[in-house]
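Lab notebook page, bench 4
Experiment: in silico fold of construct C2
Operator: M.H.
Input chain length: 320 residues
Purpose: comparison with the prior construct
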Amino acid sequence: MAERPIVLGVQPCGEGTDPGRYLERMTLTARGVDVLFLVDPAVDPAIDPAVGAAGAAPVQPRLDALASATRVAPGVPGTGLVPQVPVTGADPVALHDAVAALDAASLGRAGWEVTVRDPFAPTPSGELWAEAAEVVEVAHRLRTGGGTGSDVSAGISDGFSGEFVEVRGRIPVPRSPQGEPVVVIRADAPEALPVAARSADVVRIAAGSVREAAMRRLDLEGAAAEAGRDPATLRVLVDVGVGAGEGLHHSGSAGLASLTRELAAAGADGVVFLPARPRGLEKVADDVVPLLRAHRTPLRTLRERFGLPVPTAGLAAAPR
């Protein structure tokens, strides 16, 4: 079997408040990388985004990460798109439909990075991640639980009832071009580790050294095995700072390429470059990527790019 090439991703830093400019930069950057990881634009809590500061012009409306990914999808053929998606307190069916719309717009190049938030009251992190696990389970069952073989749609036939999430009745949905959008979970928080090990296709980690990244992958594989999952089905991406930053980082293009090769040799399936400044996007696309490969083969589906199989069966019930 041919060795899979390392996956090269990039997560842009803040791009200001202009949605048009933001989308333009994403389109330009995507020409060199495999996957764009998108986050919600930073919001100044002292300013209401709808009306702006007193006496100031209204702030332009912001696109959240999922909306940005869906809008930019037609302009970045051959590039995967993975927006952060907050799942706590969300309607799991509506959330699923929004991710499915991105998957359709990108022709199967979509994933979603599961995040948890609790803006109203302090809630233990373990409880937030337990809810997230149920939301991921519902999304998975919507895709794989209601049809097999040549059926053109899937859905939940008998419903789902968990501690935090409940869905009743059959909800038919179109088949995904890649079977199911790729689920990405960051496993830096201890409470997120078991959820990522059980439910994620791709796990993102941060590390202070190549050795630490290798050890964290071993921890993930052990957790996956404990959950009854084949560790070989798990993909791990390591964050790499472009310029200043905590953890693994480098300011030079050659250094970034060398660090990426070291991580690949240590077992990483890919990296996510984190530019400290907007111009770092062009640095990654124009300078770093060409040092790592002579040419880029546009992906057909994101699942295929990671070497992941098409899901055919539901997951086990979430642990209580």
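Observations: The chain has nine helices and 13 strands. The chain has one domain: 7-122+179-305.
Next step: discuss at group meeting.
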